[in-house]
């Protein structure tokens, strides 16, 4: 697992931020047409084409949000389906707007309405074939009995938020050694989260570990970062924090190994020992 490629949220954001850029470019001729009509004083036609351009831009924005949600859905082994079908809504906007524009070119003659409806339907089909529609089912992965998708996702989301907070605090610490050690700790934490996503049955065995351990590590790291940011800490405090990091890293490594190998371990004793040391060192 340690050799697995780490997910980079920045690359994810860039990839799905770019996807669908064509939807913003294709309506540009309509904007030009609207400007020309405005210069000619054709107010009604300007309103129609201008409204169509605005509708296309709105659809592109909604679709891009849908792409990002689907990207996150596809990335995770256990995921909720998007609650709002953003891509489908965007496809409907594009379909209706395309049909209205085609009908406008026919001066809104009733006889041309069926053809315009057909063209709108083709636009919807084209979007669906090229971009796809929204996923509608939750991804359960290797979900076991007694554990729901919601429980697993809530635990994983909460753990990731704590790890992100530790990362944010780490960046404020200027000590290179502490930075490197905290980086190893957060990497190990994400490996544990990944292992739970691979096998949700591990959640019940790691629940207290994720809550208590990550909470304690977050408090320690944030407290140190806030107290010593930009300041030279006394040697005694540096030594205490170093010992705390030793305990955190060692305990985390041991418990990750047990999580992967032992089906019946309990972390209560290890967590209590670690908390006792953190309190004794005066960092929590």
UniProtKB/TrEMBL annotation:
<dbReference type="Pfam" id="PF10112">
    <property type="entry name" value="Halogen_Hydrol"/>
</dbReference>
<dbReference type="InterPro" id="IPR018770">
    <property type="entry name" value="ChloroindolylP_hydrolase"/>
</dbReference>
<keyword id="KW-0812">Transmembrane</keyword>
<feature type="transmembrane region" description="Helical">
    <location>
        <begin position="47"/>
        <end position="67"/>
    </location>
</feature>
<feature type="transmembrane region" description="Helical">
    <location>
        <begin position="88"/>
        <end position="105"/>
    </location>
</feature>
<feature type="transmembrane region" description="Helical">
    <location>
        <begin position="117"/>
        <end position="133"/>
    </location>
</feature>
<keyword id="KW-0472">Membrane</keyword>
<keyword id="KW-1133">Transmembrane helix</keyword>
<feature type="transmembrane region" description="Helical">
    <location>
        <begin position="21"/>
        <end position="41"/>
    </location>
</feature>
<protein>
    <submittedName>
        <fullName>5-bromo-4-chloroindolyl phosphate hydrolysis family protein</fullName>
    </submittedName>
</protein>
